[in-house]
């Protein structure tokens, strides 16, 4: 049965001449991924499910959005695949990976890019992931895990009795769209953060970690992997808190830069000690990893620590990292699926990129009053080169744009260096607005590397 389905897919590709790609996901990350596939001469049509209205706006190739899909529902994902019968399916979203979308689609004979449910556990179970790091001597912060609020609170009190200003993080074990990590610097914050775990969606905080806080500079690092071989992209640095200079609540990400100067000189060490070790460990445990492996790291002095692994592209890091690829992404992905990544060229450009995320005022808290309000200026900055706009929470009606979420769109500017890229990006986003002065964005994205840039001159 499986052989017949594979032959059917090969025949479909031959008949159509160019490949059809289905991307599972809905945000600016998936918009960016669709642009990478769009650049391939081998790709003719791209479907993004559930996608968002802006993804298909003014594209060079045929781009479809199918909203009859939920990233948390396997049946709906399979229905979309059976409807379009794509030549390649890219499962780009963490919820879909965690429920086994890759496994199911492969069982139906589809050609799928992304790690299996078992392999992606390195992201969707933070307790398992930390214990995996222990088994393979991957440097990480000290941690304890709890499944009882009472025990967690007692531990917090004990720690702060010994040191009243200790830096700790309370982290949900499950997926939380980047919002499951809570910073504590005193006993009251610590207790409040432990108590907040029970309010997280989908029982993601039912088990939680209490982790030593490290003082250093964070970075993001991505590798495309075929299970054995891998290529590393440029490093990046994202800004997760809602306000300038890393203040306020955690969000899904408010901006990013690439490359990140903080990793200069550490690239080989990162690849060897954090990417290669993880792939070898996963392989040893029968969790063959094909897909995008993400390292969220922190540099403390001359030491690197792992803060987390993810099993897919980050958002907004994808918006500044993937566009640097000069090679054919469709070829790379197919080589990963076939376990032949070493046979394909991997080439990156020399530019710098800055991404600023435009959000509804009130995000990540209550932003319901912003929904339905008009977004202005997008159609104009799309005409400015080298600015790219990727949609997330945008709804379109009669070729007009309306707010329909927390994070609405990403503006990405490119330049020969961080200064030029940042200037381009902020020129773009400063020419957008939301009805009633309801647009929020950080004005400091890239500030660390801007300071480094001027110190080097």
What this model shows, in words?
The protein is of the alpha+beta class and 457 residues long. It has four domains: 2-114, Rossmann fold (3-Layer(aba) Sandwich); 142-212, ATP-grasp fold, A domain (Dna Ligase, domain 1); 217-343, ATP-grasp fold, B domain (D-amino Acid Aminotransferase, Chain A, domain 1, 2-Layer Sandwich), CATH 3.30.470.20; 352-456, Glycinamide Ribonucleotide Synthetase, Chain A, domain 4, CATH 3.90.600. Helix content is 32%, strand content 27%. The chain has 15 helices and 25 strands. The protein has helices at 2-16, 28-38, 74-84, 94-98, 101-107, 121-124, 126-135, 149-162, 187-196, 267-284, 317-321, 329-338, 378-381, 418-429, 447-456; strands spanning 19-25, 43-50, 62-65, 88-91, 112-113, 143-146, 168-172, 181-184, 208-212, 217-225, 230-232, 237-238, 241-243, 247-250, 255-258, 291-300, 303-310, 352-360, 374-376, 387-391, 394-397, 400-403, 407-415, 433-434, 439-440. The strands form six sheets. Strands 12, 15, 18, 20, 23 and 25 form a six-stranded antiparallel sheet that branches. A five-stranded parallel sheet has the order 3-2-1-4-5, with helices on both faces. A four-stranded antiparallel sheet has the order 6-9-7-8, with helices on both faces. A hairpin with a 3-residue loop joins β13 (241-243) and β14. α8 packs antiparallel against α9. The protein is globular. The protein starts with a helix and ends with a helix. The relative contact order is 0.12.
- The H-level CATH homologous superfamily of the largest domain, spelled out, is ATP-grasp fold, B domain
Name of the CATH first level of the largest domain: Alpha Beta
Q: What's the number of helices?
A: 15
* Total domain modules: 4
The pLDDT mean sits at: 95
Q: Overall 3D geometry? A: globular
Structure classification: alpha+beta
Question: Would you count the extended β strands for me?
Answer: 25
What's the quaternary structure here?
single chain
Taking the sheet with the most strands, its summary is:
6 strands, antiparallel
Helix content: 25-40%
Sheet-strand content, in percent, reads 25-35%
| Rg estimate, integer Å | 21 Å
Q: What's the N-to-C terminus distance?
A: 64 Å
